[in-house]
Structure formats: structure tokens, C-alpha cells
């Protein structure tokens, strides 16, 4: 187990062992078909894989073009929005100046109206001054009545609380007396013979000594059954561990073979393709990237002006 590079649990070992077993059966079936004269579909599958790779590259290039076009449209929209903001700013400055002039005129008009209202209010205040003093006297009289009523209610509440405390004290004393009577120990003496039966006239009636012996026999039988079950579990566990060890050996062999096969396949791919061969970008992508850079610089310049 220490030679395995990755630590696996029992379920993972069994899953991987079953996977490699299915692969081995598939490979044996393929070899058997080849021996019978059937063709090897690996070359066709490799060509199909290459064609799919080319289609995928074309799709990715098309997706990249669409993404760059969207980004270019976004930059143009942002630039147009900045131009609109600049025009609105000029209009807002003009409207702010006109509004300031109107506010100045409105302020002068309001000052004149406030002056006239102040004079009118002074005349009205003189008329209401006497009514205000009478209202203050009435309020003080009401407050005095409320204070007297509160003091009377407080005295009644104090008397009620004292009566309730007296009732609770008497009830607590009565409960204490009852508990003291109940706590007195009751002394009972009775001799018990453990070898005698209960005398109920039953056939299966046994004494306490016989019951204890029967219980001891049952415990010994239960202990023997548990020991047997424990031994069975240990044997099953050892068999399972041996199975896992065999699976691990098989998995190690399969991994080594798959690694060698992958290395051989990689070497074959390197021989097929030249080392200096690279995929060039589409001309459309380069043009779109150039336009995006130009629009971005123009947008940043416009943002600096704003």
C-alpha cells in the first residue's frame, strides 16, 4: 500500500478496479475482432478527431470576433454617452445662470412679503397675550389635581401589597410543615429468603437464586455468540483487505501501462507535427483589436476633458 502514489479509500479502489477491468475486457474484445479479420477504427477516429479540432478552432475564432465586436460597440456607446454628457453639461451651466437670476428676484420679493407679515403678526400677538396667561393657570390647576390622585392610588396599592405578602407568608409556612412531616423516615423490617418462590402457584415460578443462575447462563451464551460473531467479522475484514490489496496491485499495473501508452502517443504526435508550426490569428481579430485600442484611447481622452 505504501508504494501507491495516491491514497484511495475502499470505494475508490473498487470503482477504479472495475473501470480497468472493463477496459481490459474491451481491449481483449478488440484484439479478438482484429484476429478475426475486422479493421482497426483508430485511424478513422484520429482523422475524425483532427477534423473536429479544426471545426472547434474556427468556431472559437468566430466567437472571439463576436466578442471583440461587442467590446468595440461598447466603447463606441461609451464615447457617444460622454459626448451627450458634455452637451448636457453646457446646457446645465446656462440653465443654472438663468435660475440664479430668477432666485435672486424671488428672494427680494419674499423679503418684502416677510416684512409685511411680521408687522401683521405683531398686531395679532398683542391680542392673544391675555388668553395665553389664562391657559397657563388652568394647566397648573390640572397638574395639581393629577398629583393628588396619584398619591391616593399609591397608598391603596401599598396596602394591597402588604395584605398579599401576609397571605403568601402563611402559605409558605404551611407548605414547610407538610414537607417536614413527609420527610420523616418510615422504618420497616422484613426478612427475605432468596431461595423461596413467591408462592403464586405457577409452574414456571422460580426463586431469586434460580433466576440469578439462569441469568448467568444466558450471559455466558450471549458472550459466546458475540465472540463467534467477532471472529466472523475479523475473517471477513481480512478477506476484504486482501481483495483491496489485489485490486491495488492491478491498478498499479494498469496505471503504469496507461502512462507508457500516453508517452508513446505523445511522441508520435510530436513526430507528426513540425516544432515551428503555430496557428496564426485571424486578420479580422487583429483589425478589431486595433480599433478597440483606438476607441479606448479616445474615450479616456474624452473622460479626462469631462
TrEMBL record:
Keyword Transferase: no
Keyword Coiled coil in annotation: yes
Coiled coil: 85-178, 208-238
Keywords recorded for this protein, A-Z: Coiled coil
Official protein name in the record: CFA99 protein
